[in-house]
Structures are given as structure tokens and as C-alpha cells.
Structure prediction request, 77 residues.
Amino acid sequence: EMHAARLIGMDWEESRALLGEVYDHLYARENTMEHVWHKGDLVIWDNLTFQHARGPLASVGRRVLQRVVVGVEGRRL
Prediction:
């Protein structure tokens, strides 16, 4: 699934083709990591540098998602 519709400054077809190549590379098996969840697991990542997604989840019980933002007063890093 593409998260961007087009690239500004490029025509529609050219933009979609380039985005397709980017996403093909991004989600290629050799560029991905899959975590197998177990009760009590904690996973932390940096949203600015890490593209993340998830596929279907097997039921492992209740999930708790927590967002933490770290920054400098008046400015996010």
C-alpha cells in the first residue's frame, strides 16, 4: 500500500512509477524485519528514521500501545 499519492513537480505517471520503485525497495524481504510477538514483549522504534507497518496479527491477548515524544522545549527533535 502506498502512503503517498504523488510527488510534487513530477507528472502523475512518472511520480507513481518512482513511488512504486521506492516502495518495492522499502518492503523487499531483505529490507524488512518481522517481530514474532510473545506475551510481555516491548518494542521501541524511532518514527523519524524507521518505516513501520504490520500485517495481520494472531490473537496474543490485549495489546497496549504507548507513544512517547522526545524533544527540546518548544521544538520536537
